[in-house]
Amino acid sequence: MNMNKGKLIGIGVGPGDPELLTVKAVKTLESVPVICSPKSSPKKPSVALSIVQGILDGRSDEYNVIEPLFPMIEDKNALESYWAGAAELIISELDEGQNVSFITLGDPAIYSTFSYVARIIGDRGYLVEMIPGINSFTGCAASAGITLGEKDEIILVVPKVDQRLGEILEHADTAVVMKTSRHSHMLEEIVKQDPRDKEILSVQNCGMEDEEIFDGFARNGKYLSTTIIKFKKLENK
Amino acid sequence: MNMNKGKLIGIGVGPGDPELLTVKAVKTLESVPVICSPKSSPKKPSVALSIVQGILDGRSDEYNVIEPLFPMIEDKNALESYWAGAAELIISELDEGQNVSFITLGDPAIYSTFSYVARIIGDRGYLVEMIPGINSFTGCAASAGITLGEKDEIILVVPKVDQRLGEILEHADTAVVMKTSRHSHMLEEIVKQDPRDKEILSVQNCGMEDEEIFDGFARNGKYLSTTIIKFKKLENK
């Protein structure tokens, strides 16, 4: 471990409402010298950064914000070169002894780009820590006033709609499907095959000012859409 | 909706570290007139209450703590009568126009006793809200420095060890199994059947002073034990 080097701290900033940050996340963001906030496009503001902007605005000391580009592409080689580039940017700060907080929507352990960058940096011998965040699906459940699991119910979390859902849905009591709006038709078809009664709802932009909750599926293509399907137990005949 | 009545607010207090409460939870606990903190035994202190005690100690105003008994029993009828009793206790406060915060370990939507009491109270026409909390498994992942899901990986969350696991494990990339220590031998047998390579770790008393992280399974019987199994993809032959 490089003892005179800074450490990388992955911070989950929760689904959208700045009040859903943890006390630990707020304290860290009030004092860390460098904030790394990836953005998906040079033209679009970072959602994670907008969530913590109020905390940063309250600081009277100097701090740096670095915003590496992480485009939403599927090409694995291209993605890896973006991650490596972000890692180099962060490492140059760590080498100067600066701690760097990498902010990420939701929780850093759940489908976060943080993990790819953290692996590169951890493998190079730097200290990496994580501060957990409210993940989108518990945020959605709270907004919608429903539970995700009770008693011995099994919860399934799937990051996107694909054909594997057909094989696994029958084993779940609750299915959380993230980023559903782009393939909501496929999701509907798969869910329809399950003979159980079900309660379906979707939450878009959870915790944000334009949060919307729908009965059923989300069809309008917004990126931050999560669908929760609660299956009722089949009665024994 | 009874407009002059108080509302019930389910608050997830996270896995153990008081700094993992959200800002919203702290603000609410600093001002709410009644805190409901169920305890599993008259002799044992409530874990959830101990997590928020520091916040309550900082208050200069008057507040009430009510501690209904929710024993850890399996008898459904007996349990329902405990829930109904707790609901009455809370309703008597709501009827006096007092808001009541029901504190619960982790998140109120994930295997929380809050849900049973909230249903009774909601059905009686009172307003019920939820403030999400850091759930134990993202807390465990952060403590252990691992991710739960990356890319298109499927996460399975199971509240306790039972035979259903055998049918469903093969569909998961990551399995989170809660309260594992009482049946860790059964869990080991089931996991062994899966031909994939795997990384297994267990976290006990996550976020608390006596937190412990084990390689493999937890065998010492502590209640707050979570085991995380990450499966490696089988190579195509």
Could you describe the 3D structure shown?
2 copies of one chain form a homodimer. In chain A, 29% of the residues lie in helices and 20% in strands. Chain A is elongated. Chain A starts with 7 loop residues before the first strand and ends in a 6-residue tail after the last strand. The first copy, chain A, has 2 domains: 8-131, Cobalt-precorrin-4 Transmethylase, domain 1 (3-Layer(aba) Sandwich); 136-231, Tetrapyrrole methylase, C-terminal domain (Methyltransferase, Cobalt-precorrin-4 Transmethylase, Domain 2), CATH 3.30.950. By secondary structure, the first copy, chain A, is α/β, with parallel strands linked by helices. Chains A and B meet through helix 1, helix 4, strand 5, helix 5 and strand 6 of A and helix 1, helix 4, strand 5, helix 5 and strand 6 of B.
